[in-house]
Amino acid sequence: MLFHKPWVMTALHMLKYAGTSDLGALFGELLAERWRTQCHGALTTTVVTAIPLHKRRERERGFNQAEIIAQAFAKALGVRYVRLISRPKPTRSQATLGYGDRQKNIVGAFAPRPQSEFLDKEMKLVFPFKTVILIDDVVTTGATLHEASRVLQKSGATTVHALTVAYAPKRTRGVDPGEVRRMVRQQFAKL
Known about the structure:
Layout: H1 6-17, H2 22-38, E1 46-50, H3 55-61, H4 65-77, E2 80-81, E3 85-86, H5 99-106, E4 111-112, E5 131-139, H6 143-154, E6 159-167, H7 177-189
Parallel strand pairs: 1-2, 1-5, 5-6
Antiparallel strand pairs: 3-4
Helix pairs in contact: 1-7, 2-4
């Protein structure tokens, strides 16, 4: 997680709901920079994946913000990005639910992605990719990351590292995208 700051929440809101997808790539690169400085370790047996959207929601939005972040993260670290899980069960938006309802809403939402080249017929991860870096844009209760991690571990992942850009979003509106990009770059230069 990068951190909980109003400018990060504003940028994520713009990414998800205003289609400012270049912010996703920027966040992915910044997460990779943070990983390099704080999480030393070989990535030779690691793949990166993202929390998937249900196909209907992705069609409505036109993209998956977590996937944009994850792809940029993987590219910056020289690691493969792979779609390992799918979201066959449509769920209500987690943002509209309380803690207990979030837990119930997300149960069973994820499944191994049958088309993945890194899963065998039994939906188990194929060696050597036993470590997965799972990326999402925001964590609030952790229910989504927990459920997706459970599916990845059931598929054979020995370690799942969950990374998010931020914690506990707040809604913001009417902010200039150029100003948000400038704030993001400026704040990360201070890290």
